[in-house]
Design brief:
Length: 256
C-alpha cells in the first residue's frame, strides 16, 4: 500500500479524529466536541450496564429465575437473552426509566469492537487480500475512545444519545448532556438540539461517501441473496439503509 501511495479510509478517519483532539487540547478553554444520535438502535447500555446490575442483584438475592417466572420461560438467564426476547433497545427501555431532564450514567461505547480481520480488494488487482483492522481499535494510534450517555428531553420523544471523546476530559459529557437538553427544549415536541438540527439540515455528504456505501450495500445484498442468507428482518434493515443513503429522513424534522 505504501509503495502504491494508497491509504486505508478507516486509518485516515482515525488520524483525522486524533488530529481534531490534538487541536482541541491546544485551545483554552477546551472546546466542546459532541455528537447527538436520535432514533438509534443501540442496546449496549441496557445489555452491558443496566441489566448486568439487575441480574447481579437478582443473583445476590437468590432470585435468578425472576424473569423466567415472569415470562414463563427457562432460557432468560442473561441480559442478552432477555433483550433478544423483549426486543428492547436502549432508547425504548430508558424512555420508561428516565424522566425529562434526566440523563443516564456515562459509559464507554464499544464503537470499534467490530474491527478485526477482513478481505480488501486494491484498485487494479484481481482478488482480495487479508487485512487486520484490529490495530485501529482505541489505543495510541487507533480511534479515540468515545463516551456516551442518554438524555431524555420530553415525554413525547425518545431519549437521544450524546457522544464525546474521552481524551478531552470527564466534564465534556456532563456539559454536552446539559446543552443537548437545553437546546432541544426549544422544540420539545421534536426532541433534538436546535443548533445541531440546523447544521445537519444544510450539511452535504460527499458523493464519494454515499457512492461507497451504496456499492457496499449492493454487494452484500447480492452475496446474501445468492447464498440464501437473508431473513425478513435483515431484508428490512438493508432496504431501509439503502433508501436513506439517497433520501434524507426529514419526516420528523420541524418545517419552520
Amino acid at each position: 500500500w505504501v509503495e502504491r501511495r494508497l491509504f486505508e479510509p478507516l486509518a485516515w478517519l482515525a488520524y483525522l479524529y486524533r488530529k481534531l483532539i490534538k487541536t482541541a487540547r491546544q485551545r483554552k478553554p477546551t472546546p466542546l466536541i459532541a455528537g447527538v444520535v436520535e432514533r438509534g438502535e443501540l442496546r449496549e447500555f441496557s445489555e452491558k450496564i443496566l441489566l448486568q446490575r439487575v441480574f447481579r442483584g437478582l443473583r445476590d438475592k437468590g432470585n435468578e429465575e425472576y424473569f423466567n417466572k415472569m415470562y414463563g420461560r427457562t432460557d432468560l438467564k442473561s441480559p442478552k437473552a432477555l433483550l433478544d426476547k423483549l426486543g428492547y433497545t436502549d432508547t425504548l427501555l430508558l424512555a420508561m426509566l428516565l424522566q425529562p431532564g434526566e440523563f443516564s450514567e456515562p459509559w464507554e461505547i464499544g464503537k470499534y469492537d467490530g474491527l478485526r480481520q477482513g478481505d480488501v480488494s486494491l484498485p487494479g488487482e484481481v482478488g482480495t487480500g487479508r487485512v487486520n483492522f484490529a490495530p485501529l481499535k482505541p489505543g495510541k494510534i487507533g480511534f479515540p475512545r468515545v463516551n456516551g450517555c442518554y438524555v431524555h428531553i420530553s415525554e413525547t420523544t425518545e431519549p437521544v444519545r450524546v457522544e464525546v471523546f474521552d481524551e478531552l476530559g470527564s466534564d465534556q459529557i456532563v456539559e454536552a448532556a446539559r446543552r443537548t437538553y437545553l437546546y432541544a427544549r426549544l422544540l420539545p415536541g421534536y426532541g433534538f438540539p436546535v443548533g445541531l438540527d440546523i447544521a445537519d439540515k444544510y450539511a452535504h455528504v460527499p458523493a464519494w461517501l454515499t457512492n461507497a456505501y451504496s456499492k457496499l450495500i449492493r454487494h452484500h445484498l447480492g452475496v446474501s441473496l445468492q447464498q440464501g442468507e437473508i431473513s425478513d428482518t435483515e431484508m428490512r434493515r438493508i432496504l431501509v439503509q439503502a433508501i436513506y443513503m439517497t433520501h434524507r429522513d426529514w419526516l420528523f424534522r420541524p418545517t419552520n
